[in-house]
């Protein structure tokens, strides 16, 4: 893809399609490559033991002399979380708005690569040249974190617009409505291709304004008799601002709890995205010194994550903050799919303590940061793209977004529903699928990046279901007879004390199998091991309908 | 609890409180015990490898001469699924309505205990004596399976009413409105204590009528150009009836797919709960012989379960039925918490095939079978109990249901929010908490019932996170030196080929540890093993931040 790439525009994703997470989109024209976002993804349920997942960036590493920069659209983990890993392999400049850069710098500092990274802060007036053929400009959007932008990449084939994550909020908390006029202008000048956020493509109507949540929060503060604890996403600075405002309105001091909440509040305050009166914030140690009706707490843990601040408070295992009967807890978030049960348990625990719990199932204390169908159609109508690629979503969301695009007049043959690695090539105003690019999931487990593959995951799955039996025996070098063993050690299989008989029988099965092998003069270890594994597996399945992993170990002396 | 039990009424749950599943409630007066429901629960995420969970019935086994019968309120697994296990330990008669009994009989036949079980079919006219002091009568309710009943147990202390699972449906599919008059009569005569279904206590309003779903389904049938595939819960016979009706209305034949769907359709048709014209049903082999617009399929798999019919169809791995572009698939169910992702993946696969997918997020094709807040208040107002115990729900649901009861006039001190095993004792019109009864979760894994406990589960969890390293070495009996090894075998830890260096180093760590032990004349195997485990664990955590299970095996020759 080097020579024939000249004079051709190519768009593809290394992550973010057919999934929610690890967003990474690429626009390439000839020898100029620009990357939009570098996210991480949290592991799927079947990725046992995995901490995070990042995109496979083999293509970028192989073409690193062409990569002109990475643009980060906003500061969420699924857009910036992969940077510490990516930047270890690629020495390229990064571009982000002030708040996004603040959050990135914190991340790079922790990874010890801050000073090695070339960083450029951009805003909606910036124009940056990326190589000899590409130019990027930006427009502000509304999202659940401030300073989010969409990107316009001007290419010799035409303009490519990437929305970032967005909704339209007509009454945003910081007063900064999206750059509607700039979007309109882009549309008027003509856009070749739009890449737009599909997260909420299944939802009808417009997504509500963030400020309506403020009203809900105020209402709860007004009625609360004792302390108010608000749990939300640490990065939702608008939400935090509204809690700050409620504190001012109702005369409460605010304690900030949870590592990432403290971190974001500091960065956002320093950079001017969060406005907190200097005497409003109190230390967690002071919570108990003030009357309960003069205190509020803002905290992480809105997803019921086991180690988070709210979960620890609910389980009475938080070092500093205790929730008492009569306190009010607001869970200002909706469950991310998969977290419903965890959140349910946290709510149960809080109710058990005797707290009043206000959560999205019963009250209006959350809105999404992603646009619903009417937001998406408004974006399409503003940008008026010739071609459309729905991004940032699982397949049904991409597909539904494509239908929306069709409904507002994008020609069906001009809509490309892609998977990660699918390329769309544009030449002379025409588009078609190009060659596939290598992509995939790189699994991070502890400090290991990519060393856990399918075999390891399959073994973890097996081990998690029925455990393991290790069968140990020692053979004589001289005549192949058993010198010691067979011994069976089991973990995660049965509770040994209650299953002695079963394990005794298993032992006999192994001994019998060995005898049989010897009679038949089987002496290759591989065959012996296979025989033991098969005989034992059959016996256990028949007896107890379980299939533990069986690991025969044969020693020779 | 024998002598002082005389003249005292006691109510408690062995399952169903602070959980959704394994419902089992007990009403005891003196020497007479009656059990209501015997459900199973599907395992929580952390119960690795477990198939199902049933209640601990130690109390019933210890008092088996007093147990007069088990009443089954309806045919759902969380109410009847534990019977095959329970009845192996308790020889007591069971009471259920005709359809419920049909489903139970199928279950007991499979478990080979049908002929050993005394079975009595009841209806809303039945009155059954249970021992010398208790008498049960029944009233029909509306639920997502026909023939559901609530139970009234008359005791010397007063009437105890158990609602079963219910909602109020003013336009039910089978025309059989709940026994409102009988409930009103019970309320008028006076009810001591009500136990009522809390599943939807968090939802405002009334739960919609099942017949509104029929309209949604008809609408989809009307528009569908090719085949229509409907996935729903096998036990939702009303829903199946409405699909049958839609087939008649729009001239389609119906194929029934999925083991439990075939089973329920057969039982329900035989017993007269499902009305299917004899020429409507076709064999799955005939699906492809008929024009696509003359065929519909009803199937299991509405929860995206990996082995279910719909999931296999979506993955093109079903032996008989293939879904083609242009087919319409209705997922007539909402995700049970925890299943959101599985269902999402199935919908994605169906979209990929090119099917039109109609699901609850985008269309009205499902209603719940459990009453919302207004249904629950109506039940409370009809029954007018003196005491109230919310049942069938996680803690927050019980708690919210208690608030509803208070709002319609039940005195707060007369509401008992219980956990499984908590007893409420009634004497002379007063109630208080009594002694705690043994309860718990009995885990079923394959054919093993209760042989997997916390240690086994903890090991499975450990194994699932970072796998296992088995360290094998052979020592000389003579002088304690290493004769062979150390050998390290890993499973589920790292991909060995890419981590040779790490494993080599691990090997050296073990060898060094052994040397050190020998110098220090440590020779007890337990100490040697601990030293190896600790040294290796420390090394691996520092190097790669993982904590695999380490299993040292020392042999002596």
Question: Can you offer a commentary on this structure?
Answer:
2 copies of one chain form a homodimer. Chain A has 557 residues and is an alpha/beta fold. Chain A folds into 3 domains: 3-205 and 368-449, Metallo-beta-lactamase, Chain A (4-Layer Sandwich); 210-359, Metallo-hydrolase/oxidoreductase (Rossmann fold, 3-Layer(aba) Sandwich); 454-556, Roll (Ubiquitin-like (UB roll)), CATH 3.10.20.580. In chain A, strands 7-6-5-3-2-1-20-21 form an 8-stranded mixed sheet. The first copy, chain A, has a 6-stranded mixed sheet with strand order 8-9-10-11-12-19. In chain A, strand 22 and strand 23 (448-449) form a beta hairpin. The first copy, chain A, is globular. The N and C termini of chain A lie far apart (58 Å). At the A-B interface, helix 10, helix 12, helix 13, strand 24 and strand 25 of A face helix 10, helix 12, helix 13, strand 24 and strand 25 of B. Chains A, B: Ca(2+) binds at residues 49, 51, 445. Chains A, B: Residues 21-217 form the Metallo-beta-lactamase domain.
Radius of gyration of chain A (Å): 29 Å
Largest sheet of chain A: 8 strands, mixed
Ends of chain A: how far apart?
Answer: 58 Å
Helical/strand content category of chain A:
alpha/beta
Global outline of chain A: globular
CATH class of the largest domain in chain A: Alpha Beta
**Proportion of strand residues of chain A:** 15-25%
CATH architecture of the largest domain in chain A: 4-Layer Sandwich
* Largest interface, Cβ cutoff 8 Å: A-B, 71 and 70 residues
**CATH superfamily membership of the largest domain in chain A:** Ribonuclease Z/Hydroxyacylglutathione hydrolase-like
Oligomer: homodimer
Overall number of domains of chain A: 3
Q: Ranges of chain A with pLDDT <50 over ≥5 residues?
A: 1-5
Provide a count of the helices of chain A: 15
On the 0-100 scale, what is the average pLDDT of chain A?
94
By CATH, the topology of the largest domain in chain A is: Metallo-beta-lactamase, Chain A
Kindly report the spatial arrangement of strands forming the biggest sheet of chain A.
Answer: 7-6-5-3-2-1-20-21
Total count of strands of chain A: 26
Helicity level of chain A: 25-40%
């Amino acid at each position: 893809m080097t020579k024939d790439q000249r004079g051709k525009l190519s768009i593809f994703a290394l992550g973010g399609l057919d999934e929610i997470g690890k967003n990474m989109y690429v626009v390439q024209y000839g020898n100029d490559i620009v990357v939009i976002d570098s996210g991480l993804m949290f592991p799927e349920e079947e990725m046992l033991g995995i901490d995070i997942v990042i995109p496979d960036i083999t293509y970028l590493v192989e073409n690193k002399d062409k990569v002109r920069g990475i643009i980060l659209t906003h500061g969420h983990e699924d857009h910036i979380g992969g940077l510490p890993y990516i930047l270890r392999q690629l020495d390229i400049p990064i571009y982000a708005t002030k708040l996004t850069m603040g959050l990135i710098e914190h991340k790079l500092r922790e990874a010890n690569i801050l000073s090695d990274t070339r960083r450029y802060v951009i805003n909606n007036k910036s124009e940056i040249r990326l190589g000899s053929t590409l130019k990027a400009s930006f427009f502000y959007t509304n999202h659940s974190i401030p300073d989010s932008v969409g990107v316009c990449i001007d290419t010799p084939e035409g303009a490519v617009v990437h929305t970032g994550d967005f909704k339209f909020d007509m009454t945003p908390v910081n007063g900064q409505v999206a750059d509607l006029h700039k979007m309109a202008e882009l549309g008027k000048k003509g856009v070749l291709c739009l890449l737009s956020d599909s997260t909420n493509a299944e939802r009808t109507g417009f997504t509500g304004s963030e400020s309506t949540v403020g009203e809900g929060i105020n209402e709860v503060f007004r009625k609360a008799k004792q302390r108010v604890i608000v749990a939300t996403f640490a990065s939702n600075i608008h939400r935090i601002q509204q809690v700050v405002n409620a504190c001012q309105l109702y005369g409460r001091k605010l304690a900030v709890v949870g590592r990432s909440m403290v971190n974001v509040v500091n960065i956002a305050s320093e950079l001017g995205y969060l406005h907190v009166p200097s005497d409003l914030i109190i230390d967690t140690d002071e919570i108990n010194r003030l009357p309960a009706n003069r205190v509020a707490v803002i905290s992480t843990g809105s997803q019921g994550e086991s180690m988070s601040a709210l979960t620890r408070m609910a389980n009475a295992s938080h070092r500093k903050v205790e929730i008492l009967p009569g306190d009010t807890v607001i869970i200002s978030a909706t469950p991310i799919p998969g977290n419903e049960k965890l959140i349910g348990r946290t709510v149960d625990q809080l109710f058990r303590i005797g707290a009043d719990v206000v959560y999205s199932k019963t009250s209006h204390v959350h809105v999404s940061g992603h646009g619903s169908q009417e937001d998406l159609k408004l974006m399409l109508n503003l940008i008026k793209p010739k071609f459309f690629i729905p991004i940032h979503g699982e397949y049904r969301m991409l597909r539904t977004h494509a239908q929306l695009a069709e409904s507002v007049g994008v020609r069906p043959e001009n809509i490309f529903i892609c998977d990660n690695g699918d390329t769309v090539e544009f030449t002379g105003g025409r588009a078609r699928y190009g060659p596939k690019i290598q992509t995939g999931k790189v699994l991070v487990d502890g400090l290991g990046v990519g060393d856990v593959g399918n075999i390891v995951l399959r073994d973890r799955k097996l081990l998690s279901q029925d455990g393991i039996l290790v069968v140990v025996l020692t053979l004589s070098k001289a005549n192949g007879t058993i010198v010691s063993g067979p011994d069976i050690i089991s973990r995660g299989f049965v509770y040994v004390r209650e299953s002695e008989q079963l394990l005794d029988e298993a032992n006999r099965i192994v001994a019998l199998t060995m005898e049989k092998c010897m009679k038949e003069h089987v002496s290759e270890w591989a065959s012996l091991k296979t025989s033991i594994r098969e005989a034992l597996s059959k016996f256990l399945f028949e007896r107890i309908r379980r299939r533990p992993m069986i690991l025969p170990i044969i020693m020779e002396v």
